[in-house]
Structure to design on (223 residues):
Protein backbone atom coordinates (compact mmCIF):
# COMPACT_ATOMS: atom_id res chain seq x y z
CA UNK A 1 0.00 0.00 0.00
CA UNK A 2 0.97 3.66 -0.24
CA UNK A 3 1.49 3.93 3.54
CA UNK A 4 3.72 0.85 3.56
CA UNK A 5 5.79 2.23 0.69
CA UNK A 6 6.10 5.57 2.46
CA UNK A 7 7.21 3.78 5.63
CA UNK A 8 9.75 1.69 3.69
CA UNK A 9 11.12 4.80 1.97
CA UNK A 10 11.49 6.50 5.34
CA UNK A 11 13.31 3.48 6.77
CA UNK A 12 15.69 3.37 3.81
CA UNK A 13 16.42 7.09 4.11
CA UNK A 14 17.17 6.70 7.82
CA UNK A 15 19.51 3.78 7.09
CA UNK A 16 21.33 5.75 4.39
CA UNK A 17 21.69 8.70 6.76
CA UNK A 18 23.19 6.45 9.43
CA UNK A 19 25.60 4.92 6.94
CA UNK A 20 26.66 8.37 5.75
CA UNK A 21 27.22 9.57 9.32
CA UNK A 22 29.22 6.42 10.14
CA UNK A 23 31.45 7.00 7.11
CA UNK A 24 31.99 10.63 8.11
CA UNK A 25 32.85 9.63 11.68
CA UNK A 26 35.38 7.10 10.40
CA UNK A 27 36.95 9.65 8.09
CA UNK A 28 37.15 12.24 10.87
CA UNK A 29 38.70 9.71 13.22
CA UNK A 30 41.42 8.89 10.68
CA UNK A 31 42.04 12.59 10.10
CA UNK A 32 42.13 13.42 13.83
CA UNK A 33 44.37 10.46 14.67
CA UNK A 34 46.77 11.37 11.87
CA UNK A 35 46.99 14.96 13.08
CA UNK A 36 47.72 13.73 16.61
CA UNK A 37 50.61 11.60 15.33
CA UNK A 38 52.42 14.56 13.77
CA UNK A 39 53.74 16.00 17.04
CA UNK A 40 55.22 12.79 18.50
CA UNK A 41 56.84 11.97 15.16
CA UNK A 42 58.43 15.43 15.06
CA UNK A 43 59.65 14.94 18.63
CA UNK A 44 61.11 11.55 17.72
CA UNK A 45 62.97 13.08 14.78
CA UNK A 46 64.43 15.76 17.08
CA UNK A 47 65.58 13.15 19.60
CA UNK A 48 67.23 11.10 16.85
CA UNK A 49 69.02 14.22 15.55
CA UNK A 50 70.28 14.97 19.07
CA UNK A 51 71.46 11.37 19.48
CA UNK A 52 73.33 11.63 16.17
CA UNK A 53 75.15 14.77 17.31
CA UNK A 54 76.10 13.03 20.55
CA UNK A 55 77.78 10.16 18.73
CA UNK A 56 75.06 7.50 18.50
CA UNK A 57 75.65 4.56 16.16
CA UNK A 58 75.29 6.01 12.61
CA UNK A 59 73.64 2.85 11.28
CA UNK A 60 71.03 2.91 14.04
CA UNK A 61 70.41 6.62 13.49
CA UNK A 62 69.94 6.01 9.78
CA UNK A 63 67.47 3.18 10.41
CA UNK A 64 65.48 5.31 12.85
CA UNK A 65 65.35 8.27 10.47
CA UNK A 66 64.18 6.01 7.66
CA UNK A 67 61.41 4.57 9.84
CA UNK A 68 60.31 8.02 11.02
CA UNK A 69 60.18 9.22 7.41
CA UNK A 70 58.07 6.18 6.53
CA UNK A 71 55.68 6.92 9.39
CA UNK A 72 55.45 10.56 8.31
CA UNK A 73 54.57 9.37 4.82
CA UNK A 74 51.89 7.10 6.27
CA UNK A 75 50.36 9.99 8.23
CA UNK A 76 50.30 12.21 5.13
CA UNK A 77 48.70 9.44 3.07
CA UNK A 78 46.03 8.84 5.71
CA UNK A 79 45.24 12.55 5.90
CA UNK A 80 44.90 12.74 2.12
CA UNK A 81 42.62 9.69 1.97
CA UNK A 82 40.46 11.11 4.77
CA UNK A 83 40.01 14.31 2.76
CA UNK A 84 39.31 12.28 -0.38
CA UNK A 85 36.66 10.22 1.45
CA UNK A 86 34.93 13.47 2.41
CA UNK A 87 34.82 14.38 -1.32
CA UNK A 88 36.68 17.64 -0.78
CA UNK A 89 37.57 19.57 -3.97
CA UNK A 90 41.13 19.89 -5.22
CA UNK A 91 43.17 22.31 -3.12
CA UNK A 92 44.36 24.07 -6.29
CA UNK A 93 44.25 23.64 -10.05
CA UNK A 94 46.68 25.00 -12.60
CA UNK A 95 48.37 23.96 -15.85
CA UNK A 96 50.69 21.00 -15.32
CA UNK A 97 53.15 19.53 -17.83
CA UNK A 98 52.61 15.84 -17.22
CA UNK A 99 55.68 14.88 -19.23
CA UNK A 100 57.87 16.98 -16.91
CA UNK A 101 56.25 15.28 -13.92
CA UNK A 102 57.05 11.86 -15.39
CA UNK A 103 60.68 12.76 -16.09
CA UNK A 104 61.19 14.11 -12.57
CA UNK A 105 59.77 10.90 -11.13
CA UNK A 106 62.16 8.89 -13.31
CA UNK A 107 65.16 10.90 -12.11
CA UNK A 108 64.22 10.27 -8.48
CA UNK A 109 64.68 6.50 -8.74
CA UNK A 110 67.81 4.60 -7.66
CA UNK A 111 70.42 4.12 -10.37
CA UNK A 112 70.13 0.30 -10.22
CA UNK A 113 66.86 0.49 -12.18
CA UNK A 114 66.99 1.27 -15.90
CA UNK A 115 64.20 3.64 -16.93
CA UNK A 116 63.02 4.03 -20.51
CA UNK A 117 61.38 7.43 -21.04
CA UNK A 118 61.62 7.54 -24.85
CA UNK A 119 57.81 7.37 -25.09
CA UNK A 120 57.26 10.37 -22.82
CA UNK A 121 55.47 12.93 -25.00
CA UNK A 122 54.46 16.53 -24.17
CA UNK A 123 51.13 16.54 -22.33
CA UNK A 124 49.60 19.50 -20.52
CA UNK A 125 46.58 19.19 -18.23
CA UNK A 126 44.80 21.13 -15.52
CA UNK A 127 45.27 19.83 -12.00
CA UNK A 128 46.92 20.05 -8.62
CA UNK A 129 50.66 19.89 -9.41
CA UNK A 130 51.65 18.48 -6.01
CA UNK A 131 49.07 15.70 -6.17
CA UNK A 132 49.92 14.81 -9.76
CA UNK A 133 53.60 14.62 -8.78
CA UNK A 134 52.60 12.26 -5.97
CA UNK A 135 50.46 10.13 -8.27
CA UNK A 136 53.23 9.53 -10.82
CA UNK A 137 55.91 9.14 -8.15
CA UNK A 138 53.82 6.49 -6.37
CA UNK A 139 53.38 4.55 -9.61
CA UNK A 140 57.08 4.74 -10.49
CA UNK A 141 58.22 3.78 -6.98
CA UNK A 142 55.80 0.85 -6.98
CA UNK A 143 57.18 -0.32 -10.32
CA UNK A 144 60.75 0.01 -9.00
CA UNK A 145 59.95 -2.31 -6.09
CA UNK A 146 58.73 -5.02 -8.45
CA UNK A 147 60.98 -4.57 -11.50
CA UNK A 148 63.83 -6.92 -12.28
CA UNK A 149 65.93 -4.12 -13.77
CA UNK A 150 63.80 -2.10 -16.21
CA UNK A 151 60.83 0.31 -16.18
CA UNK A 152 59.01 1.99 -19.07
CA UNK A 153 57.19 5.31 -18.63
CA UNK A 154 54.81 6.68 -21.26
CA UNK A 155 52.77 9.87 -21.45
CA UNK A 156 50.35 10.57 -24.29
CA UNK A 157 47.37 12.71 -25.22
CA UNK A 158 44.44 11.75 -27.43
CA UNK A 159 41.66 14.27 -27.85
CA UNK A 160 40.83 15.59 -24.41
CA UNK A 161 42.26 12.58 -22.60
CA UNK A 162 45.78 12.34 -21.15
CA UNK A 163 47.36 9.06 -20.11
CA UNK A 164 50.35 8.01 -18.05
CA UNK A 165 51.57 4.43 -18.25
CA UNK A 166 54.20 2.87 -15.99
CA UNK A 167 55.33 -0.67 -16.79
CA UNK A 168 58.03 -2.89 -15.32
CA UNK A 169 59.66 -6.21 -16.24
CA UNK A 170 58.69 -7.90 -12.98
CA UNK A 171 56.51 -11.01 -12.60
CA UNK A 172 53.26 -9.07 -12.93
CA UNK A 173 50.07 -9.26 -10.89
CA UNK A 174 47.69 -12.26 -10.96
CA UNK A 175 44.33 -11.47 -12.55
CA UNK A 176 42.58 -12.25 -9.27
CA UNK A 177 44.49 -9.42 -7.57
CA UNK A 178 44.02 -6.80 -10.31
CA UNK A 179 41.63 -4.76 -8.15
CA UNK A 180 42.86 -5.84 -4.74
CA UNK A 181 46.22 -4.11 -5.23
CA UNK A 182 44.40 -0.78 -4.99
CA UNK A 183 42.93 -1.60 -1.57
CA UNK A 184 44.45 0.13 1.43
CA UNK A 185 47.29 -1.65 3.22
CA UNK A 186 47.15 -4.63 0.85
CA UNK A 187 50.48 -6.27 0.08
CA UNK A 188 50.76 -9.21 -2.27
CA UNK A 189 53.36 -11.96 -1.96
CA UNK A 190 56.39 -10.32 -0.34
CA UNK A 191 58.64 -12.23 -2.75
CA UNK A 192 57.48 -9.76 -5.42
CA UNK A 193 58.94 -6.80 -3.58
CA UNK A 194 62.51 -5.57 -3.67
CA UNK A 195 62.27 -4.18 -0.14
CA UNK A 196 59.70 -3.43 2.52
CA UNK A 197 59.57 0.29 1.84
CA UNK A 198 56.40 2.25 1.31
CA UNK A 199 53.32 2.67 3.42
CA UNK A 200 50.98 0.14 1.84
CA UNK A 201 48.85 3.05 0.63
CA UNK A 202 50.72 4.15 -2.50
CA UNK A 203 48.37 2.71 -5.11
CA UNK A 204 45.28 3.62 -3.07
CA UNK A 205 46.46 7.23 -2.92
CA UNK A 206 47.37 7.23 -6.62
CA UNK A 207 43.91 5.99 -7.60
CA UNK A 208 42.24 8.56 -5.32
CA UNK A 209 44.27 11.37 -6.93
CA UNK A 210 43.33 10.16 -10.40
CA UNK A 211 39.67 10.07 -9.35
CA UNK A 212 39.88 13.60 -7.93
CA UNK A 213 41.10 14.78 -11.35
CA UNK A 214 38.25 13.08 -13.19
CA UNK A 215 40.41 10.16 -14.29
CA UNK A 216 40.90 6.53 -13.41
CA UNK A 217 43.78 4.23 -12.51
CA UNK A 218 43.70 0.64 -13.73
CA UNK A 219 46.05 -2.30 -14.05
CA UNK A 220 46.64 -3.27 -17.68
CA UNK A 221 47.59 -6.81 -18.70
CA UNK A 222 48.79 -7.75 -15.22
CA UNK A 223 51.77 -5.40 -15.52
Amino acid sequence: TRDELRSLAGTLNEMLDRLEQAALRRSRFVSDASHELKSPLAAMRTMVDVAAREGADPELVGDLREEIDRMNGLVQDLLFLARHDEARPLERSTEVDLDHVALRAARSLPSDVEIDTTAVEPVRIMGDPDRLEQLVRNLVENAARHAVDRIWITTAEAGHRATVSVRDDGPGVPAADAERIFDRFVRLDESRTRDTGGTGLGLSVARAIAHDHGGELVLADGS
Summary: The radius of gyration is 21 Å. The mean pLDDT is 82.
